Amino acid sequence: KSISLQDMKKRTYKLTLISAAILLVLASCAEHIYESIYDTQQRILDAWVDHNYGEDLQPTESGMYYLNRESSPNGRPVVDSVYVFVKYSVKYLDGVYKDSNIEEIAKQLGTYSPTNYYTHDIWLVNDHTLTEGLYEVLTGMKTGEKVTVAIPPSLLFSETISYYSMFYYTTEGNDSEKVSVIYELEVLDFVPNINEYQLKQLREFRDQNYPGLESSETGFFFKKTKSVSFEESADSIADEESLKIFYTRRLLDRFVFDSNIKDTAKKYRFYSPSNGYNALEVKYKDSLGLMIENNELVEGFTRAVHQMQYGEEAIVFFYSNLGYGERGSGTIPSYTPLFFELRAEEEEEN
């Protein structure tokens, strides 16, 4: 049977439509299959906001949602490259808290510890230390202001970040399951120069508690509270010998967060029966540089011990450059000066 030219054109047109439909379906499937986790989570966040807050709540250009804001008309605007004092909490969209530096919420989470310092964290505000989302939020805040903001995971991860733990959160600790979270942030204050701020703290602490004590180097104050006489120090410490140190670690406000003295641990309610509360053995070296290099201890502590003899006691306080620096200790925030009470012994006593 012969087919007319018109029939052939109709069939060709029909085949073209079918082919186009198939391509559209395939393209749609491909888009669905290969949608990034960030795109998926943004859609989930959009739907969650629409359900809980309605269509009137619109996202920022970057995709975040401000759920609440308590303004501070007289506050100072946060700018780039300052050090902010922040109280924060993080929770999932279902309202379950994941992280916080607030004592009451830490107790809810079951992460509370008497050795954790629940006051504030100090964050350096720039795009190399904070995720894109946190940087955007903080540089839009003022001191005294509180915000609650939902942030998608695309704004909570950056390979350039050198520290801070607030990168992103997952439901099961799996990188492939990054999820949106809600940040509750309060900016207490900020300072432009963290070293100057700490040095001022140290001088004020010195003037109040040890007036007249001179700093032997920047940010380091040391004083022997019990010295050994020349006759008693005949058996001085030799290179490579071990010095047994009992210590109590405090902050400048006298908050005690660690000690290897049993009675002190009991007094401040962090005693643990599994801890032997033995002296810390520190290998002494004639060279201070080698002693710092060969002991895995904070530098300010090592510098103090290097100046001690058997039977002596001392106090030392120093800024975070000689302590835990920009990272903090896990229990103590970053950029925090430390205060130690030290006792050096030959024999194990407690």
How many individual β-strands?
A: 15
* Gap between N and C termini: 109 Å
In terms of quaternary structure, the protein is single chain
SSE order, as H and E? HHEEEHEHEEEEHEEEEHEHHEE
Apparent shape: elongated
Protein structure class: alpha+beta
What share of the residues does DSSP label as strand, in percent?
15-25%
User: Can you give the mean pLDDT?
Assistant: 86
Computed over alpha carbons, the radius of gyration is: 30 Å
> How can the largest sheet be summarized?
7 strands, antiparallel
Question: Spans of 5+ residues with little confidence (pLDDT < 50)?
Answer: 12-17
If helices are DSSP runs of H or I spanning 4 or more residues, what is the number of helices?
Answer: 8
What does this 3D model show about the protein?
With 350 residues, the chain is α+β, with helices and mostly antiparallel strands. Helices cover 27% and strands 25% of the residues. The protein contains eight helices and 15 strands. The strands form three sheets. Strands 9, 10, 11, 12, 13, 14 and 15 form a seven-stranded antiparallel β-sheet that branches. Strands 1, 2, 3, 4, 5 and 8 form a six-stranded antiparallel β-sheet that branches. It has a two-stranded antiparallel sheet with strand order 6-7. Strand 6 and strand 7 form a beta hairpin. The N and C termini lie far apart (109 Å). The relative contact order is 0.12.
Write out key terms for the chains shown.
single chain; 350 residues; alpha+beta; six-stranded antiparallel β-sheet; 25% strand; elongated
